[in-house]
Structures are given as structure tokens and as C-alpha cells.
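assembly run, all chains below
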Amino acid sequence: MAQPTVEDVAREANVSRQTVSNVINTPSIVKPATRDRVQAAIAQLGYRPNLSARRLRQQKSSTIGVRLDPVRNGISGAVLDRFVHALTEQADARSMRVLLFTAASPQDEIEQIRSLHEGADVDAFVLTATFHGDPRTAWLIENDVPFVTFGRPWGIDDMDDPKHLWVDIDGREGVKDATARLIDDGATRVGWVGWPRPSGTGDDRRAGWEEAMRERVGASDAELVALSVESYDGVSEATETVADMLRAGRVPDALVCASDTLALGALIAASSAGLTDLPIIGFDNTPVAEAVGLSSVDQVLDRVAVATLELLLGSEGNSIVSRGTDAGPSHRLIAPALVLRTPNHLPLYGTTTERTAPAVRNHHRKETS
Amino acid sequence: MAQPTVEDVAREANVSRQTVSNVINTPSIVKPATRDRVQAAIAQLGYRPNLSARRLRQQKSSTIGVRLDPVRNGISGAVLDRFVHALTEQADARSMRVLLFTAASPQDEIEQIRSLHEGADVDAFVLTATFHGDPRTAWLIENDVPFVTFGRPWGIDDMDDPKHLWVDIDGREGVKDATARLIDDGATRVGWVGWPRPSGTGDDRRAGWEEAMRERVGASDAELVALSVESYDGVSEATETVADMLRAGRVPDALVCASDTLALGALIAASSAGLTDLPIIGFDNTPVAEAVGLSSVDQVLDRVAVATLELLLGSEGNSIVSRGTDAGPSHRLIAPALVLRTPNHLPLYGTTTERTAPAVRNHHRKETS
DNA sequence: ACTCAGAATTTGATCGATCAAATTTTTTGG
DNA sequence: CCAAAAAATTTGATCGATCAAATTCTGAGT
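ok done. output:
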């Protein structure tokens, strides 16, 4: 037989369509005895509500749209993918779905969003890689389309706009913790490898390092300048930059980096300069970091995903919360987690092949809560 | 005003609902003059068809379901994510959508698939990580739900089942090419670092290496055994394994590996043993390989995505092709592409800091067509 | 002019669910 | 025991599109 409908279930249970509907959507208003009878009928016939019909009637889709960025930026490019993954899992727990789409340009993306939203295919959007003066967020706000961005709007005005919901990783705090940890372990001259300024995310992370250095070891402006370098986000660029730093005699006790890419470069430069024991901490906790045994600040994307949905749906429900009514916080800053590892490669033992010079040290990890 | 409907457009253009519908779906049967008038009205009102309504009527969703695997297996875990990405882009070009879902177990996944399919939310599925005797594919076939798997069904019987559509990377050919390339470059003793057998994918890749070695350098069984090792898919495991191999004096001219993870381990072991120039080729072309300048066999996931959709939708259309009618091929083997790089790290120059000993060599890549 | 096939367009029904309002049943309280 | 309130259930309308069938228009052939 074809897929059973409410009608079939109703007939089977000797009730009306609406009662069946109520059992599914608002069980509390149905008398227990009736409810049981209907549920039995549902189970017996294997009934599943047709979501297209429901959406048509309710004018909503229980679906969240996420744009996959066409640009893949190397090592950290997978962060977005991991976020999508986490979001899908969390959405699932709220019986929401995640629909992906792609767009060639911001304008095209707006067009897609429009189409998805007006076609009642998607109730809300999650945007990534937003920037100051982003036409997409302006359009979304203007057209009253619910959305949350993963990433702060870095413009000063936007930051507290209650109409712009956002979730972000507290890079400052994460880097501060990482730096503090290195200091606790005995370092005093902790260096910073960052991205060229200005960079919203990058400057924020750097601020964490700076804060920790000032508070914990009373670093002066001059010392901070001497201990920090900037590099584009590429392994070879970072290697070169850090190598230059070391050659110039600005040798730190440890390094904190704005990304795993930079950290990998730093690791190579340090190893190459014979500093095999220089502690280095990256950012993003990518598979690369795991592979080479690099400590890193993890973005705890599952928590970001949870927060995203909380902003969108409220703490409990599974339908989009209309803003302005209940004024919950309009953004969430998530504290990242430091993942400490011991390097498991780049052993610079020359050409020895003796058994007593193990090529690989023990690999163990430990996560901060 | 609320979102305009066919009704509104019809009124504006002085035609009936159905004519508007025809302009959208079968423009050829509408008289040009009328068509233009309707199109003008559509543009003027900014009309978008409501997809839920269309789906309800047509009993299809133009949506493909993909399950995101909850397990993340290190470096190569991102391959699935990249595939999803490519699939989304290709689907977009066919005006199809990709819906993600997760499931805790195969049984749960079947339940989800059932729900998505019967709720008319998803027309077809793409499965990954299938295995011999997979209950999911059996269920899908039995229930006539269209699907394609990324990955061969490795059981002998299943392989040519016309009901089981699949797309896969021709690992054998990819590894054979890689091996041949190394031989062309002068190597004769090309080693193999693979996964413990039996392993469908792993054994297939190994077969490529074996073939190339037999055909091009006439390697004997004994030589093949001496040149190959097996390791679980972890960096440290691979490092250990290859280090053992080298210590035992089984030193190859070059290495081909079943994964980038293994290749990274091999790279570390080789460097550590002083073999800085040992050519190594991995598999998957992950960001890690790119970062460390490791050559690798790329899975050309965009082509896999194209092939997946071709199996599902035929070469042109945008609706699911019912199998059995037109008996196109039921599977596609995609030849991967070799990406050659020169290592850009692991420089074993001791502790020199001279400028003339560059820490980083030039990084250039080249793809085979 | 006139018929008739084929093209173009319109009309009425339908997909499967939920909403809003109406009706019936049950409970409460005097 | 009955009226009024509350709870439970049912009925009719509707969401926005497409399908199938009916109708009107057009142009070729005589």
C-alpha cells in the first residue's frame, strides 16, 4: 500500500484526523486512552507524517540553511566542515534538519537565501565568514529572516546590535589560557606568531597573549614587540618568518600561534634551528595538529553548534524564536579548550638508526575540561 | 505583502494559474507572447514557487540525503566532508539540494532514511562507508529507495548487482600510476606501506603497486614481500613500522602509501633515518599532505560527485531515474589524479642558522590531467 | 466560408497535513 | 439533578502548487 496518511490512522483508531494530528503535535490535550489507541494505530500502520504537507500548512520547514564556502583555505579549511558536522548532530537532537547550499558570490548567496526562504524551504540561516559591512547580514536583517553568524561582526557598531545574533569562539581567552599555561610551566618569554594586522580574529587572539604576558610576567611594550612576529597563513611563510626571528636572536621560551598552520611552520623553523624542545601551541586543533602532536586551542565546535541553536530556537523549543519578544542575549562567546600534546615527530637525531634513539616519543594527550 | 503565489502572478498577467505553472515547468507549450507576459509578471512581483507545495503535489523533493558519519578518523576523516562539499556544489548545478542527517548506528540510520524518504523529504540517498553485507543497502534495495554508494560493495556477489549503484575511486590505478611515476624517475625498489589485510580498499590499492612493480621492474614475489609493510592508520604506528623496516635493512628507493597518514609516518621515519630525499607518495591528498609538501593521490571528489549524480539522475535530467528502465552502467570507477609536490619541511640541516641553508625549499605542485 | 485537428489555455480536483471554529463529552459546583 | 465551565473531539477550510480533463482558440485544407 501507499504511505499511510492521517486519514488512514484516524480510520484505524476510530477517531478524526485532527485527533491524530494532536497526538503527534500536542499529546497533552488528548485523553490518555485515546492517545494510546492512536499511537497503537500509528505503530501498526507505520505512519510517518508527510513533512512537505506539514510545511505547506505551517509555512515553516524546520530546516536550517548553511552555505558551504567554495574556497578551501588549507589546513584550517576543514573547520567549517567540522562545524557543519557538529551543527547537523545538534540540529538532529532538536529534530531540525540542515540543508546545504553553495553560492559563487555574496550577491548570489543573497539570491539563494531569498529563494530558499521564500520557497519556505529554510526557516533560518547560519552564516560563516562574515565581515564588517557584510551585505548578507544587512539583507537578512532588513528582510526579517532569522539567522545567526558563526563569527562576530567585527565592526564596532554591529557588535551589540540585538538584531544580529552571533556565536563566536573567545580567541582572546583561549590564547590567554594557553599563554598562562606555558608561563606556569616555567616560560617567561612566550612569543606570538600572528597574522598581519588588522585582522579581527587575529587581533583578538593576540590580545589574549598580550594580556597574559602583561599580567603574569609584567612584559613591557618593547618586550611584546620583540617577541611577536606576523606571517600570512601558510606553512612555508610561517617557517620563514619564525626562522628570521630566531636568526635575529629573538629567541623565545615558547610560542603561541594564531593558527595551526602558523604553528606547524614555527615547529619546523624551531626544529631546524635545533630548538627541538620549544613548546608551541597552535589554534584550531586541526587533524594536522593531532598528527604531528602539536598542542592546540580547540574550538569546541559542538558547543558552538549548541549555542547557535539556542540563539535560534531558544533553550528548549524546536521552532524559531522571534526576536524582540523575549530579549535573551543576542550573542554567545564560547571559551575554547586547550589540548596539550607532546610532539611525536621532527626528531633531529641526525642519521642515527640505533634503537636507543627512538624515532617516536610516546604520544599522549590530555584535554583541559 | 506576503509572498506572491501563482494566483497573484496569474492575475497580474491576465492568465490562469496553470499557464503560470506551465511557463515555469514546460515553457515550450506556452505561446511566446503569453510567456513573455507571464515572465514579466513573475519578475515584477518577485514570485518564487513554494517548494513545499510543489513537493506535496509531485510527491518528490529534489533533495538528496547524506549521512554524516559520527566517527572522525583523523587526517583522512575530512575526505567525507570534502565529498559532501563537492556533492553540494554539483547538486546545486542540477537544482538539487543536499540534506544532511546523522545516525548513531546502522539500524538508526535505516530508521532515519525511512523517515526522510516516507516523509517525502528526500528522494534519494548517498551512502558512504559501506561494507559487505551492509544492512542499509539491503534495506534500500528491498524498499526500492534510490541510492548510490560512494565506495564499492566489496563482497564478490554484490559488485555487479545492477540494483546497487556505486561510484568509487580506482585506487589500484591511482597507486599504479604513482608507482610507475616513481619508477620512471629512476626508482626500482619502490616500497609499499599499507593497512593490515584483508581490507577491501587497502588491498585494491596494494594491487596497483604490485602490478606496477611486476610489469615495470619485474619484481618477484619475494621482493614484493620484502618491500612492503603493514601498519594501522596512525602516524606514530606508521613511523614505527617504517623505522623497523629501515633498521632491518629493507631500504627502498621510494615509498607509496595507502594513506596520507601512513605517508606522514613514513616521511618522519625516513627523515629520522637520514633518508631526506626518499620520495614518498601518499593517498587522499589531504590538507596535511599539502602542508608538509607530500605528494599524494587525489580522489578528485568533484568528479566523484558528478558521477554520483549521473547515476542518480541520468546525464542530463534533474529527477531521479528509475532503474531497470534504461539500463545504463550501474557503477563508475573514477581514476584519481597524482599530485606531485616537493617536501617543504623536515630539513635536517642540524643546527645551522646560515642564510644559505634555506629552511624551506620552493614549493610547487603539478597535477596530472 | 466551414470543418476539424492540434495548439493554447482554463477549470476543478488533489497532494497531506494543520488551523480555526464548531460540536460533543466530561467535570464542577451550587 | 441541572446549568455552566472545561476538556475532548470533530468538521470544514486552507496552505500553494500541479495533474487531468475540459474548453477555447488557431490555422490548414477544401
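Residues 83 and 301 of chain A are 6 Å apart (CA to CA).

The radius of gyration of chain A is 26 Å.

not gonna interpret more than that til we talk
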